[in-house]
Amino acid sequence: MEDSYVYYPNLLGSRQRRFRKHCYHNEYKCHTDRQSLHTIAVLGNIVGGVTTIPAQSFTNDSGTSVAANGLIVSTSSGYYNVFVNGTFLRGGLTTLSTANLIINTGLVVGVTVVIEVIFQH
User: Fold this and answer.
1) Total structural domains within the chain
2) pLDDT tens across 31-86, in order?
3) Looking at per-residue confidence, does 17 or 110 come out higher?
4) Which of 20, 23, 81, 86 shows the smallest number of beta carbons within 10 Å?
5) What angle is formed at CA 23 by the lines to CA 20 and CA 29, rounded to 5 degrees?
6) pTM of the shown model
7) Closest of 120, 115, 119, 121 to residue 98, by C-alpha
8) Among 91, 116, 106, 99, which Cα is nearest to 41's?
9) How many C-beta neighbours within 10 Å does residue 37 have?
10) Close Cβ partners of 55 (under 8 Å, ≥ 6 residues apart)
11) In this predicted model, which residue has the larger pLDDT, 15 or 54?
């Protein structure tokens, strides 16, 4: 058994939380990559009860802005999670494309939105 750590952003501050994960290499072999993107909802994103956040509104873990049409969409073996102010949004409320993230509800201006994209291969 090999111990490793998974880092998740602390949405209430700039520090990250560290969680221990165990990987049993004798039972399976997994490689997981993770990318986290951050933004804050602004008034122009919220129209008619739907929030649409363009790719260029997000920054990655390094603080680098994402280019237009530069959002990473997970492959068939991966998935993505969306958090609003640190709360996980249930499936079916969001659509992620390379151009934008659509949340099928109107958010409050100023909330933090995080997309966590997980690639398993």
Assistant:
1) 1
2) 667 788 899 889 888 888 899 999 999 998 889 999 999 998 877 778 899 999 99
3) 110
4) 20
5) 150
6) 0.71
7) 115
8) 106
9) 24
10) 66, 67, 68, 69, 70, 71, 98, 99, 100
11) 54
Q: Give the whole-angstrom CA distance, residue 85 versus residue 111.
A: 6
First to last CA, the chain: 19
Give 86's DSSP letter. Answer: T
Cα(109)–Cα(43) distance, integer angstroms: 6
**In this structure, is residue 106 part of a structural domain?**
yes
Round to whole Å and give the CA distance between 70 and 99: 7
Q: Determine how many CB atoms are found less than 10 A away from the CB of residue 70.
A: 14
Domain with 104, as residue range(s), is 31-120
Q: How many CB atoms lie within 10 A of CB 71?
A: 23
Number of C-beta neighbours around residue 80 at 10 A: 18
Structure tokens at 117: 């994209």
Q: Is 22 within the bounds of a domain?
A: no
Residue 51 lies in a domain: yes
Q: Is there a domain that residue 74 lies in?
A: yes
SS3 (DSSP) at 98: coil
